[in-house]
Amino acid sequence: MKNMSETPWFCYLLQSEDKQRTYIGATVNPDRRLRQHNGEICGGACATKGRSWKRVALMKGFPNEVAALQFEWAWKFHARKHGSGLKARFQGLADLLKKPKATSKAVPFSEWSTGLPTLHLEELEYQTLVTELGLTACLPEPSLATVSTALTVSLTTGLTSTLGNAEGETPL
Question: pTM of the prediction?
């Protein structure tokens, strides 16, 4: 059995297929969780029932479950200040990444053993929105690069990589 501290945690942003709603969550298995939200298997959140969802963004690289859940809560908290919709969610993420830590009780990002998490955009169309909102300005060395039809932004070094393709990484 895998040690819980070694289990990779993710935060994700979903958008309904009709583009009317968004949802932020955290999980150890993003693909399974998306299937749950879409009603393909049991276990989706009540807020996502009755709609079809697509994943817009995925944050990878949390040191543990607590850090991922604190980040998820803080992302939702900061996004609410900007209203609703996809733009508000990305604005909330930009606000959060300008902070030294996710919550007042959280370990500072600078002390995370994993470094800051990586943002992976599922579709190239979101690159423009992320750039317009200044989300890349939150990065020490901003870098946007396309990898196939996906976009990955490292929030630590500006280096890019695809999720699940590096040796030793867990595939999504």
Answer: 0.78
